[in-house]
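Operator note (shift B, R.M.): manual run for Potassium voltage-gated channel subfamily KQT member 1-like requested after the automated queue skipped it. Running by hand, logging everything below so the morning shift can see what happened. Input copied straight from the record, untouched. If output looks odd, do not overwrite the archive copy; leave it for review.
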Amino acid sequence: LTESHRKAIRVIQRMRYFVAKRNFQQARKPYDVRDVIEQYSQGHLNLMVRIKELQRRLDQSIGKITLFQSGSDRDKDKGTNSIGVRLNRMEDKISHMDQTLNRIAESLTFLLAQRDPGDCEGGGVGGGGVTVRRGRTCNVLPSQDSLPSYDQLSSSPSPLSSNTKAGPHHASREENC
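Run finished. Output pasted below as returned.
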């Protein structure tokens, strides 16, 4: 090898040495605090986005608390507002509505019995069911403490509900029932 070749090989070896030395020092250098904080904040941001998405999905599936509650209910259940508590409250409201509807039905049957005591044969308060009156039927709901059955809900509509469609003559005759 000539002298120029040897010098070129030494220069290349020195360059390789300096590159390897720089890489080694870079590997030994401690982490930059700014990089660590940036990575931490990005991880925290990703975590917060996931938590918000879970909260949104939970609100969507269960329902927002404030949509279904009055102010007094919200104040009453400030700390203990789980889905079980909300379901119990909804069941209480439904049973209260059922009792109210039963009282209204009983009042209506009582008023009908007072208004026309001899009109419905075999009828009266507590008779319940369907009673015959001059060839027509009077649908009077019996008093009960439970919700109506599927058969009661899906049966044909009563003549009372079809008064407006039958015409003025039928409405005046059915009105007394």
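Quick read of the result: Residues 86-177 form one domain. Confidence is low (pLDDT under 50) at residues 122-138, 159-177.
Leaving this for review. - R.M.
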